[in-house]
Amino acid sequence: MRRHRNTWLAVLATLVLVSWQAQAAQAATGVPDRSRHCAVGMPAMRAGQPGTGAHFAKPSRISCFGSFAESVSYATAGRVRLAPDARSVSTRQLQAAGVVSTPSALASQPLVGIEYEDSNYGGDSLVLYGSSGSGCYSGTWYGFPNLSSLGFDNRISSARTYSNCLGRHHDGTSYTGSYRYCDGSCSTFGTMNDRTSSIKFF
Fold first, then answer.
1. Is the pTM of this model over 0.90?
2. What's the average model confidence in pLDDT over 15-41?
3. Are strands 37-42 and 198-201 parallel, antiparallel or unpaired?
4. Span 48-85, pLDDT tens digits
5. Which region is the signal sequence (predicted)?
6. Cα–Cα distance measured from residue 77 to residue 80, given in angstroms and rounded to the nearest whole number
7. Phi, psi (degrees; rounded to nearest 5) at 68
8. Confidence band for 34, pLDDT divided at 50, 70 and 90
9. Which residue pairs from 51-54 have beta carbons closer than 8 angstroms and sit at least 24 positions apart in sequence?
């Protein structure tokens, strides 16, 4: 009887320890289990291309991770490495890694925007990059006409744009309906919070 009780106590202690370790690991990264941070690329479009219908450029396969750091690393092909608990990245870091385009230094596979679920750049995120081109120069643009296919429809409340791109956030798919511009950093979209269904970067 005593042996059975000791075995049961040992099993219980092990379960408690495993649970505590899991919670400690989660606290160490600062990322809750439900967090979802994704990255997806889109080919560059030339001026005059509508980017919808038969001319719709297909995005790369969306890849999702448990942390913002992992999604940024993926989108930049490992050129930007952040602390595991990072929730943002500075323009200076991106420029130093050569992953955003400037007039004097054009980047391949440039970041064009980072979209956030919450105001002030919080919550889940969606890192958007160009799978071709060098940013929004000489009429080149990038379009994401249906955020529902990326799991981010009507969820954006703040954003940052890069590589000379102005982000026009529409409440309809295929760049229709009301819209809100984001140029650089937008900590909130005001009345357009949680209403974006498509984005055009140009």
1. no
2. 51
3. unpaired
4. 666 555 455 677 789 999 999 999 999 999 999 999 99
5. 1-24
6. 8
7. -65, -40
8. low
9. 51/141, 51/143, 51/145, 51/175, 51/200, 52/143, 52/145, 52/174, 52/175
CATH number at residue 174: 2.60.20.10
Considering the domain architecture, whether residues 99 and 69 belong to the same structural domain is answered as: yes
> Which residue did the predictor score with more confidence, 118 or 17?
118
Same domain, 3 and 13: yes
- Order of strands, edge to edge, in the sheet holding 185-186? 63-65, 37-42, 122-130, 111-118, 158-161, 185-186
Torsion of CA 17, 22, 28, 33, to 10 degrees: -160
For residues 160 and 122, the answer to whether their CB atoms sit within 8 Å is: no
Q: Which two tokens stand for residue 176?
A: 């229709």
Residues 19 and 97 placed together within one structural domain of the fold? no
Question: Do 19 and 115 belong to one domain?
Answer: no
Supply 129's token pair.
């990059």
Residue 131: domain span? 31-201
The predicted-structure confidence for 148-182, as pLDDT tens digits, reads as follows: 999 999 999 999 999 999 999 999 999 999 999 99
Does residue 19 sit in the same domain as residue 74? no
CA distances to 21, 127, 192 from 36, in Å: 22, 11, 22
Q: How many domains does the chain have?
A: 2
